[in-house]
Design goal:
The chain is α+β, with helices and mostly antiparallel strands. The protein is 25% helix and 29% strand. The strands form 2 sheets. The protein has a 6-stranded antiparallel barrel with strand order 1-2-3-6-5-4. A 5-stranded antiparallel β-sheet has the order 9-8-7-10-11. The protein starts with a helix and ends with a strand.
């Protein structure tokens, strides 16, 4: 009897512990089932949540165009270099002529309505020396010419003849009848006043294009050039970077005052 009474408390305590363990297990299972069991309300929430959108690239605004620099009108109006070129050309161009060498063998018998320039076999430039009709040019322009025609700035054509030539300087003088012609002689400058870097202007008829102006500077002084039909060399030649092409031969080289300083 005593043994039975002694075991009863132990039995009760064990039963209570077992019941406590079972309760803990049930609670744990319930929590686990709640985690893994599908819930429609949560699924609906997930469907309604929009998927994250990828950020669009940022569009950079177009750069503001940089305004082009403008040339102040006062600077243009006071452009000394341009003014020099304009005035020299206006002053000297009427003194410059185009020279054409005519081959009479290709002229038709009736030459009354024929413009000689259509039959030229050589060309060059020249400039008026005086009001008597003398014109300076290079000797090689009129060398062995049988017939020479001069065209003035205003389009008038006049026949010319050779009145003098110098082989050693490659210079020549031709003459036209001054009657009815607007002859404007050039002014000569002093070559001893030239310096490297001075402005140079050339007016002539390159490639048959009459009344053309090119500009540059004096690149060097005192050069010498060999001539094809003489044993001498041409001294005191002015070197320039101004464009000089076939047809410019015999035209004037001018300083900034419009004076002739070379041929």
């Amino acid at each position: 009897m005593n043994q039975t009474q002694n075991r009863l408390p132990i039995f009760l305590v064990g039963s209570l512990f077992f019941i406590f363990v079972c309760c803990i297990s049930i609670i744990a299972l319930a929590l686990a089932a709640q985690t893994f069991v599908f819930r429609p309300d949560r699924a609906q929430t997930a469907l309604q949540t929009p998927a994250p959108r990828r950020a669009l690239p940022t569009v950079q605004p177009a750069p503001t165009p940089v305004p082009l620099p403008t040339i102040p009108p006062a600077l243009i109006d006071n452009d000394i270099e341009t003014e020099i070129y304009r005035r020299v050309y206006q002053r000297v161009n009427p003194s410059v002529v185009a020279i054409r060498i005519i081959d009479e063998s290709v002229l038709p018998e009736d030459t009354q309505d024929v413009r000689p320039f259509f039959f030229n076999t050589g060309e060059g430039s020249g400039f008026v020396l005086d009001t008597e009709g003398h014109i300076a040019t290079n000797r090689h322009v009129i060398l062995d010419a049988s017939s020479i025609v001069v065209r003035f700035y205003d389009g008038i054509l006049a026949p010319a003849e050779v009145v003098g030539e110098d082989r050693d300087t490659d210079l020549a003088v031709i003459k036209v009848d001054p009657t009815g012609l607007d002859l404007r002689p050039v002014t000569f400058g002093n070559i001893d006043e030239l310096h490297v870097g001075d402005r140079i202007l050339v007016i002539g008829n390159p490639f048959g294009n009459t009344n053309s102006l090119t500009t540059g500077v004096v690149s060097a002084l005192g050069r010498d050039v060999a001539l094809p039909d003489t044993q001498f060399r041409l001294p005191e030649v002015i070197q320039t970077d101004a464009a000089i092409n076939p047809g410019n031969s015999g035209g004037p080289m001018l300083n900034a005052r419009g004076e002739v300083v070379g041929v």
